[in-house]
Specification:
Blueprint lengths: L7 H10 L4 H5 L10 H22 L10 H11 L11 E6 L5 E9 L3 E6 L5 E5 L5 H8 L23 H25 L4 H31 L2
Antiparallel strand pairs: 1-2, 2-3, 3-4
Helix pairs in contact: 6-7
Protein backbone atom coordinates (compact mmCIF):
# COMPACT_ATOMS: atom_id res chain seq x y z
CA UNK A 1 0.00 0.00 0.00
CA UNK A 2 2.94 2.35 0.81
CA UNK A 3 5.96 2.66 -1.50
CA UNK A 4 9.01 0.71 -0.46
CA UNK A 5 11.77 2.70 1.16
CA UNK A 6 9.52 5.47 2.46
CA UNK A 7 8.82 6.15 6.09
CA UNK A 8 5.39 6.16 7.66
CA UNK A 9 5.54 9.93 8.20
CA UNK A 10 6.36 10.53 4.57
CA UNK A 11 3.56 8.29 3.42
CA UNK A 12 1.06 10.12 5.61
CA UNK A 13 2.30 13.45 4.29
CA UNK A 14 1.98 12.21 0.69
CA UNK A 15 -1.57 11.13 1.32
CA UNK A 16 -2.40 14.50 2.87
CA UNK A 17 -0.96 16.36 -0.12
CA UNK A 18 -2.77 14.14 -2.64
CA UNK A 19 -6.13 15.57 -3.69
CA UNK A 20 -9.16 13.48 -2.87
CA UNK A 21 -11.30 12.45 -5.80
CA UNK A 22 -14.80 12.25 -4.35
CA UNK A 23 -16.33 10.25 -7.14
CA UNK A 24 -13.73 7.57 -6.94
CA UNK A 25 -11.73 7.40 -3.73
CA UNK A 26 -14.62 7.65 -1.25
CA UNK A 27 -17.24 5.54 -2.95
CA UNK A 28 -15.13 2.62 -4.09
CA UNK A 29 -11.64 2.59 -2.54
CA UNK A 30 -9.65 -0.43 -3.55
CA UNK A 31 -8.47 -3.02 -1.05
CA UNK A 32 -6.42 -6.14 -1.39
CA UNK A 33 -8.00 -8.32 -3.99
CA UNK A 34 -10.05 -5.38 -5.36
CA UNK A 35 -12.97 -6.27 -3.00
CA UNK A 36 -15.64 -3.54 -3.27
CA UNK A 37 -16.79 -1.79 -0.13
CA UNK A 38 -20.50 -2.34 -0.87
CA UNK A 39 -20.00 -6.09 -1.01
CA UNK A 40 -18.06 -6.00 2.24
CA UNK A 41 -20.86 -4.06 3.93
CA UNK A 42 -23.39 -6.61 2.68
CA UNK A 43 -21.31 -9.49 4.02
CA UNK A 44 -20.96 -7.75 7.40
CA UNK A 45 -24.71 -7.17 7.51
CA UNK A 46 -25.47 -10.85 6.79
CA UNK A 47 -23.03 -11.98 9.50
CA UNK A 48 -24.54 -9.60 12.07
CA UNK A 49 -28.04 -10.76 11.11
CA UNK A 50 -27.12 -14.42 11.60
CA UNK A 51 -25.58 -13.64 15.01
CA UNK A 52 -28.69 -11.69 16.08
CA UNK A 53 -31.03 -14.50 15.02
CA UNK A 54 -28.89 -17.04 16.88
CA UNK A 55 -29.08 -14.95 20.05
CA UNK A 56 -32.85 -14.64 19.74
CA UNK A 57 -33.19 -18.40 19.35
CA UNK A 58 -31.13 -19.03 22.47
CA UNK A 59 -33.12 -16.66 24.66
CA UNK A 60 -35.52 -18.28 27.12
CA UNK A 61 -39.18 -17.57 26.41
CA UNK A 62 -40.84 -15.10 28.67
CA UNK A 63 -43.07 -16.65 31.30
CA UNK A 64 -45.67 -13.95 30.74
CA UNK A 65 -48.27 -14.96 28.19
CA UNK A 66 -46.46 -18.15 27.16
CA UNK A 67 -47.09 -21.77 28.06
CA UNK A 68 -44.52 -23.94 29.79
CA UNK A 69 -43.32 -27.16 28.05
CA UNK A 70 -45.48 -29.22 30.38
CA UNK A 71 -48.54 -27.15 29.45
CA UNK A 72 -47.74 -27.54 25.74
CA UNK A 73 -47.41 -31.31 26.13
CA UNK A 74 -50.70 -31.46 28.04
CA UNK A 75 -52.41 -29.45 25.30
CA UNK A 76 -51.29 -31.84 22.57
CA UNK A 77 -52.08 -34.90 24.70
CA UNK A 78 -55.61 -33.58 25.17
CA UNK A 79 -56.00 -33.50 21.41
CA UNK A 80 -55.17 -37.20 21.09
CA UNK A 81 -58.11 -39.63 21.12
CA UNK A 82 -58.37 -41.36 24.46
CA UNK A 83 -57.97 -45.13 24.49
CA UNK A 84 -61.01 -47.12 25.51
CA UNK A 85 -60.99 -48.13 29.17
CA UNK A 86 -60.66 -51.88 29.54
CA UNK A 87 -63.06 -53.46 32.00
CA UNK A 88 -61.35 -55.33 34.85
CA UNK A 89 -64.17 -57.86 35.09
CA UNK A 90 -64.29 -60.77 35.67
CA UNK A 91 -61.87 -60.75 38.60
CA UNK A 92 -60.79 -64.04 40.16
CA UNK A 93 -60.62 -63.49 43.92
CA UNK A 94 -61.45 -65.10 47.22
CA UNK A 95 -63.50 -62.66 49.29
CA UNK A 96 -64.43 -62.93 52.98
CA UNK A 97 -67.41 -61.68 54.93
CA UNK A 98 -67.27 -60.03 58.35
CA UNK A 99 -67.13 -63.44 60.00
CA UNK A 100 -64.15 -64.55 57.88
CA UNK A 101 -66.07 -67.03 55.74
CA UNK A 102 -64.46 -67.29 52.29
CA UNK A 103 -66.11 -67.29 48.89
CA UNK A 104 -63.82 -68.27 46.03
CA UNK A 105 -64.95 -67.30 42.58
CA UNK A 106 -65.09 -64.51 40.01
CA UNK A 107 -66.40 -60.99 40.59
CA UNK A 108 -68.63 -60.43 37.55
CA UNK A 109 -69.95 -56.93 38.20
CA UNK A 110 -70.38 -54.22 40.82
CA UNK A 111 -73.04 -51.61 41.46
CA UNK A 112 -73.12 -48.88 44.08
CA UNK A 113 -73.20 -51.17 47.11
CA UNK A 114 -73.37 -54.71 45.70
CA UNK A 115 -70.91 -57.26 44.30
CA UNK A 116 -72.01 -59.92 41.82
CA UNK A 117 -69.96 -63.08 42.22
CA UNK A 118 -69.99 -66.47 40.51
CA UNK A 119 -68.68 -69.24 42.73
CA UNK A 120 -65.89 -71.22 41.11
CA UNK A 121 -66.61 -74.88 41.79
CA UNK A 122 -70.32 -74.99 40.88
CA UNK A 123 -71.10 -71.74 39.02
CA UNK A 124 -73.61 -70.52 41.61
CA UNK A 125 -74.31 -66.77 41.45
CA UNK A 126 -74.35 -64.47 44.48
CA UNK A 127 -75.23 -60.83 45.13
CA UNK A 128 -73.25 -59.65 48.15
CA UNK A 129 -73.51 -56.37 50.04
CA UNK A 130 -70.13 -54.64 50.07
CA UNK A 131 -70.68 -53.53 53.70
CA UNK A 132 -70.84 -57.19 54.72
CA UNK A 133 -67.26 -57.87 53.61
CA UNK A 134 -64.18 -57.71 55.81
CA UNK A 135 -62.18 -54.49 55.63
CA UNK A 136 -59.56 -55.46 53.00
CA UNK A 137 -62.16 -56.91 50.62
CA UNK A 138 -64.50 -54.00 51.26
CA UNK A 139 -61.82 -51.45 50.29
CA UNK A 140 -60.98 -53.50 47.21
CA UNK A 141 -64.62 -53.61 46.14
CA UNK A 142 -65.18 -49.90 46.72
CA UNK A 143 -62.34 -49.02 44.33
CA UNK A 144 -63.80 -51.09 41.50
CA UNK A 145 -65.63 -49.26 38.72
CA UNK A 146 -69.39 -49.73 38.47
CA UNK A 147 -70.63 -52.33 36.01
CA UNK A 148 -74.19 -53.57 35.73
CA UNK A 149 -74.42 -57.38 35.51
CA UNK A 150 -75.59 -58.87 32.24
CA UNK A 151 -79.19 -59.87 31.74
CA UNK A 152 -78.35 -63.59 31.96
CA UNK A 153 -76.93 -63.24 35.49
CA UNK A 154 -79.43 -65.04 37.72
CA UNK A 155 -78.98 -65.74 41.41
CA UNK A 156 -78.53 -69.32 42.45
CA UNK A 157 -77.28 -72.29 40.50
CA UNK A 158 -77.29 -72.09 36.69
CA UNK A 159 -79.93 -74.07 34.88
CA UNK A 160 -78.82 -77.55 33.96
CA UNK A 161 -78.19 -77.96 30.24
CA UNK A 162 -80.88 -79.84 28.37
CA UNK A 163 -79.87 -83.46 27.89
CA UNK A 164 -79.74 -84.43 24.21
CA UNK A 165 -81.09 -87.91 23.46
CA UNK A 166 -78.51 -90.34 22.12
CA UNK A 167 -80.61 -90.89 18.97
CA UNK A 168 -80.39 -87.20 18.05
CA UNK A 169 -76.77 -86.81 19.19
CA UNK A 170 -75.52 -89.65 16.95
CA UNK A 171 -77.25 -88.19 13.89
CA UNK A 172 -75.94 -84.71 14.59
CA UNK A 173 -72.41 -86.13 14.69
CA UNK A 174 -73.02 -87.91 11.35
CA UNK A 175 -74.24 -84.66 9.79
CA UNK A 176 -71.11 -82.83 10.99
CA UNK A 177 -68.88 -85.56 9.55
CA UNK A 178 -70.62 -85.39 6.15
CA UNK A 179 -70.37 -81.60 6.04
CA UNK A 180 -66.62 -81.77 6.73
CA UNK A 181 -66.22 -84.43 4.03
CA UNK A 182 -68.02 -82.26 1.48
CA UNK A 183 -65.62 -79.40 2.23
CA UNK A 184 -62.69 -81.72 1.55
CA UNK A 185 -64.24 -82.98 -1.70
CA UNK A 186 -64.92 -79.44 -2.86
CA UNK A 187 -61.26 -78.61 -2.25
CA UNK A 188 -60.19 -81.52 -4.46
CA UNK A 189 -62.47 -80.30 -7.25
CA UNK A 190 -60.94 -76.81 -7.27
CA UNK A 191 -57.35 -78.10 -7.04
CA UNK A 192 -57.45 -80.43 -10.06
CA UNK A 193 -58.04 -80.12 -13.79
CA UNK A 194 -58.95 -83.80 -14.18
CA UNK A 195 -62.53 -83.72 -15.49
CA UNK A 196 -63.22 -87.34 -14.56
CA UNK A 197 -62.08 -86.77 -10.95
CA UNK A 198 -64.16 -83.61 -10.72
CA UNK A 199 -67.32 -85.45 -11.85
CA UNK A 200 -66.65 -88.21 -9.30
CA UNK A 201 -66.22 -85.74 -6.44
CA UNK A 202 -69.38 -83.83 -7.39
CA UNK A 203 -71.27 -87.11 -7.34
CA UNK A 204 -69.91 -87.87 -3.85
CA UNK A 205 -70.95 -84.42 -2.62
CA UNK A 206 -74.47 -84.86 -3.97
CA UNK A 207 -74.78 -88.22 -2.26
CA UNK A 208 -73.61 -86.77 1.05
CA UNK A 209 -76.10 -83.90 0.77
CA UNK A 210 -78.94 -86.37 0.30
CA UNK A 211 -77.78 -88.26 3.39
CA UNK A 212 -77.67 -85.04 5.39
CA UNK A 213 -81.27 -84.27 4.40
CA UNK A 214 -82.32 -87.77 5.46
CA UNK A 215 -80.65 -87.42 8.87
CA UNK A 216 -82.18 -83.99 9.49
CA UNK A 217 -85.62 -85.36 8.64
CA UNK A 218 -85.05 -88.27 11.05
CA UNK A 219 -84.20 -85.85 13.86
CA UNK A 220 -87.30 -83.78 13.13
CA UNK A 221 -89.52 -86.88 13.20
CA UNK A 222 -88.00 -88.04 16.50
CA UNK A 223 -88.68 -84.66 18.15
CA UNK A 224 -92.27 -84.73 16.94
CA UNK A 225 -92.84 -88.20 18.33
CA UNK A 226 -90.97 -87.49 21.58
CA UNK A 227 -91.91 -83.98 22.70
Amino acid sequence: MFPKGSTQTENVQNLADKPIELGKNLEQPEFAGNFPLNQMRTSHFIILLVIALAQVGCEKPSSIGSATPDEDNKFFLDLLPSAPVKSPFPIDRTIHDNQGRPLEGAIIAKTNDQLYVTRGFDGMNFKIAIDSLQESDRKFAEELPDKVPSADFHLGLPAAPEEIPAYILSRQESIKRLVDENKRLQGEITSTTNAMLQRSRRSDIKRNEQEILRLEEAIKTYKTQNP
